[in-house]
Amino acid sequence: DAGITQSPRHKVTETGTPVTLRCHQTENHRYMYWYRQDPGHGLRLIHYSYGVKDTDKGEVSDGYSVSRSKTEDFLLTLESATSSQTSVYFCASRGGAHNEQFFGPGTRLTVL
Amino acid sequence: SQQGEEDPQALSIQEGENATMNCSYKTSINNLQWYRQNSGRGLVHLILIRSNEREKHSGRLRVTLDTSKKSSSLLITASRAADTASYFCATEIDNNDMRFGAGTRLTVKP
Asked: In Å, how far is B37's CA from the nearest CA of chain A?
């Protein structure tokens, strides 16, 4: 997990409220990703970024938006949280010798 | 949709035994990667095998890839209690399309 952090680590919110999750990396990686992890589904890509202000949708992007104003920060926003968005959210950046993904520690989000 | 699917879903072995996990996928890939996830933590990259490779080793890990069968296996030799974790295969189609399976939960009993 070194070099990539997420905040908050845990959050409980109510249906209909906006939520923003933050990912911060110190590796100067160009690519960053947001995934959600649910039992029986593995990790599913929500959105990704290939540079500052350059983002695109992933497999399960409905209900989520992202922003990347600096190389090191990638924000995930749930405009109006729903119970189906209760999940563990992981951020990742891409780099290294094998161009692998480095994951943050995750954010456990509960939407009541 | 998931691209890679691991088998078995759960595996329990004794310390010192070997653990084998399999991954099947559906479409052509650039490479296949294996990751480990300890409980409550993020995923950690273990090993990458490219589509033109058949076998790779890293310490106690051995990965094979059979592109004709669209399958891969991860072998952990001489397992330790610390190997207890979930293991995921991830198939990469391009830089922005990496699909993860649901994982194999490995328990190594001391």
From this structure: 10
